[in-house]
Amino acid sequence: MPCFTFATAGQIHFGRGKAATTVPKLASLHARILLITGSDTARAGWLIDALEAEGADVEIMPVSGEPTVEVIQDGIARGRRAGTGAVIAVGGGAAIDAGKAVAALIPARRPLSDHLEVVGKGLPLEAKPLPFAALPTTAGTGAEVTRNAVISVPDHRRKVSLRDARMLPDIAIVDPSLTDGCPRDVTLASGLDAVTQVIEPFLCTRANPMTDAMCRAAIPQGLAALSVLMNAPDDSARDSMAWVSLCGGLALANAGLGVVHGLAGPLGGLSGAAHGAICGALLPHGLAANAAAARDPALNARLDQVRGWIAAAFGGATDDAFATLAAWSDKQGLSGLDALGITGDMRAGAAEAAAASSSMKANPVTLDKAQLADILDSARTP
Fold it and tell me: Which stretch of DSSP H or E encloses residue 14?
């Protein structure tokens, strides 16, 4: 039995209705709360009212799109002016990442750039983050149980992480009802991100018995639920996708990812395209490249399992499962890289940057720049 360490949020509350019943616990974090939401603050109106009814003083900060350095700096300044003692984020992965970063840096003495990976000094935090709670409203990133925040740095055209073990949320509330009514295109892109985040940890070099147990169950469950949701709204399928997304966050935080995220990070920074859509476009081609380079029988056995789960969800022959996934995603309306505005120069830059990315370090095989370029070229059109 291999040795491993498993770390996650202080508390995880999962299930329909949990968002409403855990409000007193959220309000108890501190009397002054900075609430970070998506661009439409009205969607968080229920939470604002509930926190204020518990006696909390709530400062509201909407985040439109993925967080940039400027957005995080604004959040830090707002929080300090308001005397914030705790941060809560309700929204998609962007809002949750913004919340994690702001909670981490309000007490910090150094500037943000000192703590950023790749483009900064990557220094550890000097002070403990403020108490932080996350309530996801999409089923995709699993950011509610990870220890990093992805931040866009426009000056460098990169997305990089602010990372510290103490950034794991104190409370993660995964209530699938918060994802009800999510637009179809967002459901597809975020759902493929969630599926990617249980496939890559299952295949990666740092997989362990805990992450394997989650991923083996979550991969077929996520594929089946996503197939259902592309045809009609379904509460049970929404519940499944919320669970798969949570499993993905738990797995990637404790095992790692691979080539899809290794390429998706740089591509997002260079293009500004949505992370989930990029992951969905890359997934079948990243899997095919890993399979072509695989020499380890144990890895090949895992790849065969993934092929079988895809074939069971979408039909077709097991041997052609990765192509089947690409064709299914195209039929559902997922764009290729060209349609996402990703140019040849961006692809070349991503292939160069991916080699040094943290995600690539756990990829199950070594892929050179030419192989990475082939993946990107294959993903240009669905």
Answer: strand 11-14
User: pLDDT tens across 65-75, in order?
Assistant: 889 999 999 99
Q: How far apart are the first and last CA of the chain?
A: 41
Q: Are strands 171-174 and 11-14 parallel, antiparallel or unpaired?
A: parallel
92 vs 72: CA distance, rounded Å: 16
Run of H or E residues at 11: strand 11-14
pLDDT of 171 reads: 98
- Specify the 3-state DSSP secondary structure of 89: strand
Quickly list DSSP for 173-236: EE-GGGGTT--HHHHHHHHHHHHHHHHHHHHSTT--HHHHHHHHHHHHHHHHHHHHHTTS--HH
pLDDT in tens, 114-157: 999 989 999 999 999 999 999 999 999 999 999 999 999 999 98
Q: What is the DSSP string of 125-170?
A: PSSPPPPEEEEESSSS--GGG-SEEEEEETTTTEEEEEE-GGGS-S
Distance of CA 222 to the CA centre of its chain: 15
How many Cβ atoms sit within 10 Å of the Cβ of residue 246? 25
Could you tell me which residues come within 8 angstroms of residue 344 by beta carbon, excluding any fewer than 6 positions away?
Answer: none
Cα–Cα distance measured from residue 146 to residue 150, given in angstroms and rounded to the nearest whole number: 11
Tell me the pLDDT tens digit for each residue of 174-205: 999 999 999 999 999 999 999 999 999 999 99
Mean pLDDT value across the chain: 96
3-state SS, residue 68: strand
Q: Which helix (H) or strand (E) holds 62?
A: strand 57-62
297-314 vs 184-203: helix crossing angle, rounded to 10: 160
Q: Residue 118: which region, alpha, beta or left (left: phi > 0; alpha: psi -120 to 50)? A: left
Q: Can you read off the two tokens belonging to residue 70? A: 């400027």
- Count of Cβ atoms closer than 10 Å to residue 294 Cβ: 17
Instruction: Choose among 177, 180, 193, 187: nearest CA to 281.
Output: 193
Q: Which residue in the block uniquely carries the two structure tokens 């209530």?
A: 175
Contact 181, 286 (CB under 8 A): no
